[in-house]
Write a structure and sequence with these properties.
Shape: globular
Number of domains: 1
Strand content: 15-25%
CATH class: Alpha Beta
Strand order of the largest sheet: 1-2-3-5-4
Distance between the termini: 30 Å
Largest sheet: 5 strands, antiparallel
Structural class: alpha+beta
Bound molecules: guanosine-5'-monophosphate
Radius of gyration: 14 Å
């Protein structure tokens, strides 16, 4: 179990394979601690994924286990990726576990922009 109660990290997940260079991606930014790339199935004109380079399933795992430098480096990368959209606005979102529909079990943040994004979540 990860600290969050999710299954343990699977090194065969698709983002781990992207980090190892086994699968290509459309890279937006790479730093010591993070990789940002375009989502393969974009839900908005800009849809970028930002992932830490360490093996973390969830936000709980990442923030409990990663070094302060890795955490700061990750969020700095999120900020850099969002910077060009600050004029029009954008949204960051992260899915954790089943209820959130997390498909890829490597902690990541989605960054959406390029159009009005509507309400944050449907009621109900
Ligand atoms: P989740 O549902 O886990 O929050 O989001 C996973 C995201 O990863 C989805 O938006 C999906 O389109 C994206 N994705 C899945 N496989 C690949 C891939 O091979 N390459 C890229 N660039 N994105 C992927």
């Amino acid at each position: 179990m990860s600290v969050s109660g999710l299954p343990p990290y699977d090194p065969g997940n698709i983002f781990a394979r992207i980090l190892r260079g086994e699968i290509p991606c459309k890279k937006v930014l790479e730093s010591e601690h993070a990789l940002a790339f375009h989502d393969i199935n974009p839900l908005s004109p800009t849809h970028i994924l930002v992932i830490p380079k360490g093996e973390w399933v969830s936000a709980a795992d990442f923030h409990a286990g990663a070094s302060a430098e890795a955490i700061a480096g990750f969020w700095r990368a999120v900020g850099e990726v969002g910077r060009p959209l600050e004029g029009s606005g954008y949204r960051i979102l992260s899915n954790m576990g089943v209820d959130a529909g997390q498909e890829v079990p490597h902690f990541h943040v989605h960054l959406f922009g390029g159009r009005p994004l509507g309400v944050m979540l449907k009621r109900g």
